[in-house]
Amino acid sequence: MDNNETTTLELENKHPNFIESNTQEISLGEIADKCIVPTFSDNSLTISHQDFCMATYKAAENVFGALSPIECRVSHPINGRIPTALMKKATELTDDEKTIYYQRLAWIAKVSSCTRNIDGQEIHLTIGGVRAYSEDKLYNRPSALKFKIFVGWQVRVCSNLMLQTDGFSGTFESLTSLDIHQKALELFSRFNPEKDNNLNALAQLQDTRMTEEQFCHIIGRMRLYQFLPVVQQKAIPQFILGDQAINETVRQYVNNPNFGRKNGDDGISTWDFMQLLTESAKGSYIDRWLDRNANCTEFATGIRKALRYEDSEYDWFLN
Asked: Are residues 43 and 182 in the same domain?
C-alpha cells in the first residue's frame, strides 16, 4: 500500500471522539507496554485496564461476532519513577526512568455486522466499558474492583452513544477477569439488537417535534431542577447533566449542522434533541460519562412521550 492509499484510509476512518473532556487517545498496546499496573497495599495486582478490555471484548465476540479494534480514551495520569532515579530532578529523568498509569479509562468497539439507519443517520451497535481506579480501595487489602460495561447504538456522524437501560450494566464489582467476562456475557446475551423495543424506541424519536419555545422552556426547567429541594427532585424524573452541559446543549442547538435548528424550521425533533444532549455529555469526566449518557437517552424518550400525551411523568419539564 502506498502513502496516498494510507492517507485515504486514515481520512475515511477519521471520526469524532466518543468522549472529550480532559481525555487523550491511547492504543491498547500502549497501555499494555508503557503503563504499570497498580497494586493493593500487600502488592497484589489489580485487574489491569487491558485485561478488563479484553475480557469484555471476547465476551462480545462470543455473542455478536466480529468487532472493530478497540478505541481507548484515558485521563488522570499518575506519574512515577523507578527506584534508581529517586534523587534526580524531574527535568533530568529519561523515558526509561519514568512510570505512568492512567486512573480512568473509557473504551469502545463496534459490532462489524450490525449497522442501521435512523433519520438518515447511520448508527452502529457498539460495546465498551469504563473503569476508574479512583473508585477502588487500592490502599487496603485486595478487594473487588468496580467496572461499568455497556452495549448500545452509536451515531456515526458524531460518535454519540445512545444507551438504553437494558444495555447498561451500571457499576458492578469483580475480583477476576473471568468474572468480568461472565458479567459481560450476561449483559450482551440479554441485549437483542433485532428486538423491536430497543431500536424502535430510538427510531420513534424522529416522529415528534418540539418548537423553539418548548425547547427553551425545557432548558429553563433543566436549570431549575438542579436547585430544587431534594424532596421535590425525587418527585420528578432524574436529570443529572449540569450547567456546563446544558450550556453546551443550547450552543449545539444553534450551531450543530446535523442536529441543530435549520433555517426556516421552528424547533427540532426529539431525535435531534437527544443528540444535542448526548453531544454535551461527551464533556463529562470518564467516571460520570456513561451514567449521564444513559440519562440523556432516557430523558429524550420521556420528553417525547410527554409531547405526545402518552405519559405524564415528564410533564414538569414542559409545563
From this structure: yes
